[in-house]
Specification:
It is a single chain. The protein is about 75% helix and about 0% strand. It has 17 helices and no strands. It is globular and about 75 Å long. Bound molecules: protoporphyrin IX containing FE.
Length: about 525
């Protein structure tokens, strides 16, 4: 029998001892998290993550326990509480099919052909990239936003039915675009491209409207991390338009040479908007709200959030403008702008790491921390590579080095973006499922495999410029190592998500209290 709640008491123990305490937690953003009893995390963890004064919360809960409110609390899960599971599961299915698995198959064909520049592989590589950005990053971000944004703002999700619809719209869009890439320029490919453009733009528009309407219900003052989130959504929308522009530029090009020229003109800026705009801002925003609080890392010595925000956006715009001018005029002068943009990118990466103190001593460690730290290590590696891109091209007499660019990009997409997704998901899913995080797998296996696969790809792709006979066969294997890692992690996460299904099924089978019948 619990007599006193302290900041070390778990949320689940409090709710079991005093079911009406759940109402207090709901006011601070718990809602359906953790199933019937809530997460097994300590109260101080809940308070830190939800930005609540822990001492006031302890007092409030002790008062509730001593004299519980007369109105019984009946736990009910609604669509807004578990919608994230559908998005996460869809993202796992995509990464293990048209995403990483297809990427690995493409890489094997590249290795067998002994060159990265194979025109016949372009449609498959572009389809893979599209599936990864919209289906892996996009669906994960949408699921996470639908789940956590309302809770961070202490409101409920606006129109969960519409949010649910965006999942199916996005899946239709991705399937249509993958088909379109493979079937262009045939009319059926063009038709699929039009369908993909319509559904994906509608999805992202509806998604942004849902989040804005959710935010409007809140009386909470705006916090600076929200600027990053909405900045990311802006680039999420812009990249969808540029992605369609690229598709229709390819479809209307005459001959292979013109297709290649148009890809060279649009593809680079598109990938930068997707990764260094949408990807960077969303990860930076979520990290600032999530990482220091979740791992007990404390406050940054110098708060440079606004500077980081403007550096991310400014360097991206400078990068795109310089690239386009350099490419269309051939004037070497513009490469200075490009180099400056790369240096500014390395600076924001360093400032971001210092801001969130991800390598500082933690008070709340957990299996996900190694993924988050690996993500930031890979960010620093990829951003340290970028300023050497032009120099490398000059020294190896290639101009723009495809191998170097591909290597840097993989360090960013798998090393930074994917490690971040793996880390955030492996932290939040057990909490949301109400599963004790000390009893789930440590995930060391996928962690090591993904690092080995990613490091192998990053190093070996560059080595294909120097020792192609050795590097090509080896690089061909790295994709499958990464797929194995993602599958291992995905199966574990899927299983943990299903534990909350089981939990819900048990709850539905349990007899309802008399008053609720
Ligand atoms: C996990 C295993 C992955 C494998 C095996 C893989 C494989 C590949 C290969 C072989 C290429 C062509 C490389 C080149 O031409 O240099 C490529 C390009 C690309 N991949 Fe991946 N990839 C993986 C993960 C990812 C992830 C997680 C993302 C995004 C978050 C991603 C996004 C891209 C992009 C944007 C491109 C560039 C496409 C273009 O040239 O326009 N990939 N990938």
């Amino acid at each position: 029998m619990m007599t006193e709640i302290t900041k070390l008491t778990s949320v689940a123990d409090i709710v079991k001892a005093c079911p009406t305490a759940r109402r207090v937690f709901d006011q601070h953003g718990l809602k359906g998290c953790g199933g019937e009893h809530g997460p097994t995390e300590a109260l101080e963890f809940f308070a830190a993550v939800h930005n609540v004064d822990v001492d006031a919360l302890v007092r409030e809960l002790n008062d509730e326990m001593r004299s519980p409110s007369k109105d019984e609390y009946i736990y009910q899960e609604s669509l807004g509480d578990f919608i994230y599971r559908r998005f996460f599961k869809a993202a796992i299915v995509i990464v293990l099919s048209v995403g990483a698995l297809w990427g690995a198959t493409n890489l094997l064909q590249i290795a067998l052909g002994g060159t990265f520049l194979q025109v016949r592989l372009v449609p498959a590589i572009q389809a893979h990239a599209h599936a990864m950005i919209f289906g892996w990053m996009g669906l994960f971000v949408m699921g996470f936003a639908y789940q956590s944004f309302p809770r961070f703002k202490y409101v409920t999700l606006w129109r969960p039915d519409l949010a649910n619809m965006t999942l199916y719209l996005m899946l239709i869009g991705i399937a249509a675009r993958v088909g379109a890439e493979l079937l262009r320029p045939m009319p059926v490919g063009v038709g699929l491209g039009i369908l993909a453009a319509g559904t994906e733009l509608a999805t992202i528009t509806i998604f942004i409207v849902i989040i804005l309407q959710t935010a409007r219900q809140s009386v909470e003052p705006h916090q600076i991390y929200e600027k990053f989130i909405f900045g990311a959504f802006f680039w999420f929308f812009v990249q969808a338009i540029v992605s369609d522009l690229l598709f229709f530029a390819k479809v209307t090009a005459v001959g292979v040479d013109q297709v290649v020229m148009r890809i060279a003109l649009i593809d680079g800026p598109l990938r930068d908007i997707q990764l260094l705009g949408f990807g960077a801002l969303i990860i930076a925003g979520v990290s600032q709200r999530f990482v220091p609080a979740v791992y007990g890392l404390g406050k940054a010595r110098h708060d440079r959030q606004s500077l980081i925000f403007w550096l991310i956006n400014g360097s991206l715009i400078l990068d795109i403008a310089s690239y386009e001018l350099f490419f269309s005029t051939g004037n070497l002068y513009y490469s200075i702008g490009l180099e400056l943009a790369f240096i500014l990118m390395a600076i924001w990466a360093l400032l971001l790491v210092m801001q969130i103190r991800v390598f500082a001593k933690t008070t709340q460690s957990d299996r996900s921390l190694k993924f988050i730290r690996a993500a930031y290590t890979w960010l620093l590696i990829s951003m340290a590579m970028l300023p050497f891109f032009l120099v490398y091209g000059v020294l190896t007499h290639q101009g723009f080095s495809h191998a170097f660019l591909g290597s840097y990009r993989h360090a960013y997409t798998v090393g930074f973006v994917s490690f971040m997704i793996l880390g955030v998901a492996s932290r939040v899913v057990p909490i949301l499922a109400g599963v004790d995080s000390s009893r789930v797998s440590s995930l060391w296996g996928p962690f090591i495999l993904l690092n080995v696969g990613c490091a192998g790809r990053v190093v070996l792709q560059i080595l294909t410029d120097f020792i192609p006979r050795v590097a090509f066969p080896l690089v061909g294997v790295t994709g499958f190592i990464e797929v194995a890692a993602l599958a291992w992690w995905g199966v574990e996460l899927w299983h943990t998500m299903n534990l909350s299904h089981t939990h819900r099924a048990q709850l539905l089978r349990a007899p309802l209290p008399l008053e609720a019948r």
